[in-house]
């Protein structure tokens, strides 16, 4: 049996090697490494896939979030509502811009921001909500957009883990995640469902004026060369990464289907144990399983990880410490913040290997060893 990895990028590359090599060679031959037709092709293709008017490629997912907040004109002291149970990038950029993060708890089923907790956190200083589509599961965007419209708030979707997911709105519309709020942001980090071979990201919007502002911010605040109208930054997707993404984007739905198949197997086998709570799949969306994350019930997580490692089975904790307890937010005096679901999840979640190249032989071995440990303890 081939060595088990959390994400097997090498095997995925071998399956598309000729296409990838040819695409990269095209960039090398043209020597157009920044911007140019390859990046433009990817931008147009992603706009078409997402059915969104504007895609602004950028250097990474963290930049995408920062550029979004800058383009919306958020100012120091403005409050941004977001979950604490997320990767630090979501909240890091809030603090970086001098904004105030306001952390709310997550839904115990979906692990995404709980809309029922949002309204109580809104003050006169609140300007935006940043929902995170965690692990590939969509937030309740109908409820979030209703709250945002009621209070005139911006919505920035952190879709770094949910690209490719469909959201089935209560009004009968089906939209791609990242295209529902004012702005959507994503990452093309190599391990993502749509990953490049380095860093990369993109921003989405259907608002023409906002798209112009996003492009300016991402390009040193300029619309015309050497005329810098706003304070911006330098964030762009390079042509080599765009070339890789041009090959992989047409395969995204196929990759998502492969991940769902892996998740189905895990659900079927691991779901038989009352000590393992398999991922909830909300009927309002298609879970695209960037991670396969379960909650353990009465199981020593560290001991399970050590046991699996002894069998050469990797596992990960996403995320062991909530954002509001990180040192970078110490000045906000958030130590007494009561987020019981978030606290519980950080203690009991664990993620098992999931990727597009997994075999049933690998999964059978993984599940067998997980259940061996769980049943013996």
Helix/strand layout:
Blueprint (H helix, E strand, L loop, with lengths): L8 H7 L1 H14 L6 H14 L3 E5 L2 H11 L7 E5 L4 H9 L3 E5 L10 H4 L7 E4 L11 H11 L2 E5 L7 E3 L5 E3 L6 E5 L13 E5 L2 H11 L3 E3 L2 E2 L10 H10 L3 H19 L5 E2 L14 E5 L4 H10 L29 H9 E4 L7 H17 L1
Describe the structure concisely for a colleague:
The chain has 377 residues and is α/β, with parallel strands linked by helices.
Could you explain the architecture of this structure?
46% of the residues are buried. The chain has 13 helices and 14 strands. It is α/β, with parallel strands linked by helices and 377 residues long. Strand 4, helix 7 (141-151) and strand 5 form a beta-alpha-beta unit. Helix 10 (252-270) packs parallel to helix 13. The strands form 4 sheets. The chain has a 7-stranded mixed beta sheet with strand order 1-9-8-5-4-2-3, sandwiched between helices.
């Amino acid at each position: 049996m081939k060595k088990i990895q959390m994400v097997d990028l090498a095997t995925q590359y071998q399956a598309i090697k000729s296409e990838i090599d040819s695409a990269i060679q095209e960039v090398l031959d043209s020597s157009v490494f920044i911007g140019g037709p390859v990046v433009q092709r990817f931008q147009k293709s992603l706009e078409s896939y997402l059915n969104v008017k504007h895609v602004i490629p950028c250097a990474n997912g963290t930049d995408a979030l920062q550029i979004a907040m800058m383009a919306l004109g958020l100012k120091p002291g403005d409050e941004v509502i977001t979950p604490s149970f997320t990767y630090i990038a979501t909240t890091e950029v809030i603090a970086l811009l001098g904004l105030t993060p306001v952390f709310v708890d997550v839904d115990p089923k979906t692990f995404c921001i709980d809309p029922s907790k949002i309204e109580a956190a809104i003050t006169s200083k609140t300007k935006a909500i940043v929902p995170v589509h965690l692990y590939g599961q969509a937030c309740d965007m109908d409820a979030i957009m209703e709250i945002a419209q009621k209070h005139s708030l911006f919505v920035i979707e952190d879709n770094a883990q949910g690209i490719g997911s469909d959201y089935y709105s209560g009004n009968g519309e089906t939209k791609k995640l990242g295209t529902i709020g004012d702005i959507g942001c994503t990452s093309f980090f190599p391990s993502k469902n749509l990953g490049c071979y380095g860093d990369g990201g993109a921003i989405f919007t259907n608002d023409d004026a906002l798209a112009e502002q996003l492009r300016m911010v991402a390009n040193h605040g300029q619309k015309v060369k050497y005329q810098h109208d706003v304070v911006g930054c330098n964030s762009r997707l390079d042509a080599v990464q765009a070339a890789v993404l041009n090959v992989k984007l047409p395969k995204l739905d196929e990759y998502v289907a492969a991940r769902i198949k892996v998740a189905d197997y895990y659900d079927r086998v691991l779901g038989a144990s009352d000590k393992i709570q398999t991922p909830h799949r909300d009927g309002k969306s298609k879970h695209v399983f960037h991670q396969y994350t379960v909650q353990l019930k009465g199981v020593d997580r560290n001991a399970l990880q050590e046991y699996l490692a002894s069998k050469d089975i990797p596992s990960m904790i996403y995320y062991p410490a909530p954002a509001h307890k990180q040192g970078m937010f110490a000045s906000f005096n958030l130590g007494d913040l009561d987020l019981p679901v978030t606290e519980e999840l950080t203690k009991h979640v664990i993620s098992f290997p999931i990727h597009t190249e997994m075999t049933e032989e690998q999964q059978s071995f993984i599940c067998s060893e997980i259940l061996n440990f769980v049943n013996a303890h």
